[in-house]
Amino acid sequence: MNLIILGAPGSGKSTQAKLLAEALCLPCLEAGNLLYFLSQENSKEGRTIKKAMTEGSLVADELAVTAMDGQLTSPNYQKGVVIDGFPRSLGQAQKFKWTPDKVLYIDVSDEENTKRLLKRGRSDDKPEMIKKRLAIYHQETEPVLDFYSQKGILIKVDGERSVELIHGDILKRLKK
């Protein structure tokens, strides 16, 4: 089974992706970690990715899609995968060669996401940066939800519950 988990920063998508991968005995491919790893390379692409990440903006569609498509050719992902947080723009979704069976959207309000991110306490979790990241999410990533909804593979999940209830709901809905 090939799955994508999407949600705004702070929605808990990474937590749910890891739990789901474990429950389904699938590898979890975290887009953010892959791009971070690539940003450490001393190459034109690495510097471009690093600049986008430092500014809090999205990595260019071509670069992000090439990285993900390349990673997914690995034998590790041939029996299925849970992708955490990709695609992040409509352009990425349209260019992405890989087709998911289902896309899970963890729906959480901006107020709740902001509270969670401030509580997390990472260096980039400052109010002004959170506001910027959420604005980018609404502008760039929300159209991806419509893209997958039109394909009939989007599952919207209420993300303002306990981790355990969300996880149980996801598993139940995937079995339908």
Describe this structure in words.
The chain has 176 residues and is an alpha/beta fold. The chain has one domain: Rossmann fold (3-Layer(aba) Sandwich), CATH 3.40.50. The chain is 56% helix and 14% strand. The protein has eight helices and five strands. The chain has a five-stranded parallel sheet, with helices on both faces. Helix 1 crosses helix 8 and helix 6 packs across helix 7. The two termini are 14 Å apart. 34% of the residues are buried. The model has no long low-confidence stretch (mean pLDDT 94).
Distance between the termini: 14 Å
User: Proportion of β residues?
Assistant: 5-15%
**Can you identify the CATH class?**
Alpha Beta
CATH topological fold name:
Rossmann fold
Mean pLDDT reading = 94
Fourth-level CATH superfamily: P-loop containing nucleotide triphosphate hydrolases
Q: Segments where pLDDT lies below 50 for 5+ residues?
A: none
Q: Helix- and strand-based class? A: alpha/beta
